[in-house]
Amino acid sequence: MEKEYLYLVYLLKCSLNKEKANTTNLSYYDVFDIACKHSIAAMTFESVKDNLDASLYRKWEEVKNKAIAKDIYQRAELIKLTKLFEDENIRCMPLKGTIMKNYYPYTYFREMADLDICIDSCNREKVKKILINRDYIVDQFGKIGHDVYFKKPIYNIEIHDYLINRLFPKLNQYFKDGFSLAKKQKGNVYYLSNEDFYLHLICHAYKHFYENGTGIRSVLDIYVFRKYFKNQLNEKYIKEKVKMLEIEQFEKNINQLSLVWFECEMYNQYVKSFEKSILDSGTYGSKEVYVNNIYKRNLEVLHNSLLAKIKLYWSRIFPKILNMRENFPILEKFIILLPFCYVYRILNAILNKRNVIKKEIKLIKNVK
After folding, report:
1. Phi and psi for 119 in degrees, rounded to 5?
2. Which of 59, 156, 167, 352 could be joined to 114 by an S-S link, Cβ 3.0–4.6 Å?
3. What are the residue boundaries of the structural domains of the chain, listed by start?
4. What is the DSSP code (8-state) at residue 147?
5. pLDDT digits 0-9 by tens, 110-142
6. What kind of fold does domain 88-192 have according to CATH?
7. pLDDT tens for residues 26-41?
8. pLDDT at 359
9. Distance CA 209, CA 215 (A)
10. What's the mean pLDDT in 216-230?
11. Distance CA 31, CA 8 (A)
């Protein structure tokens, strides 16, 4: 499927340049499926529409039209929410796609599953009341890191109290107080500087890449951002920070790959390997990539396939304490309850997630 993936990258390039795509002998249905998997189908429709049969044209256009409607609703909702937060004296900072979409030729090009907003931790209860009053359903509240809310037809809100989770200590420490890196621009709404917004993009992509993998859109975001702010970024500051955060090679790889894809620069062996990892993932990665990543890290240390798999099984049954604290906030105050939380987690998986367990066992058995 590599040819289909690379044709999709070509469609993205055409869309950015507002050009029509050349035809291909590849299956447009396969290309469409991959585009949906990576959340870039809406962006590619205009460049490819003249090459589609009637049936696929309707399907692809429908995805585009839904993305346009969702974009309008989401941007309007963000304005309403920031106003409500301001009325309650709640500092807030829009993150990721809510900002990134403004740098694309059309805002609907940058699809978003949710609205990401950072607040002070002390205001989580106040925000919860505001959202409930707006008919949101609380999907997750009180866990370390972020709360999740849903409202029909398409609203999904993630309220963060820090920008990078604690499983990545250096990154977490740098962004721990995100507001200290941001400037107040309107009311109680804060925005990261362009340099720190870029660093957050890189760190967020790195987090996904290291865990579940990250997809085509992460590379696209980096390219679009750098192109939009060409010759305007403080490169010395960025270079110092990526070195301090120990993500130099990742930042170099993702930038180089973006230039290979969208500026026709030459491949090298490192970029080719990096590209394969990107193409194997969806927008937010996959469980298969997650299992493979853990296995490879275990193998590098243990140099034995069987031991690497055993350690992988063990880590899935008994996650690190940091992971457990993310899911069981009570452990922040009462670490003595850790054994009971492990028991609860195991029993809950056996009773409610048997299919997930079977799938993961199969993945671990087949990992190489």
Report:
1. -135, 175
2. 156
3. 88-192, 193-285, 303-366
4. E
5. 999 899 999 999 999 999 999 999 999 999 898
6. Beta Polymerase; domain 2 (3.30.460)
7. 999 999 999 998 999 9
8. 85
9. 8
10. 96
11. 6
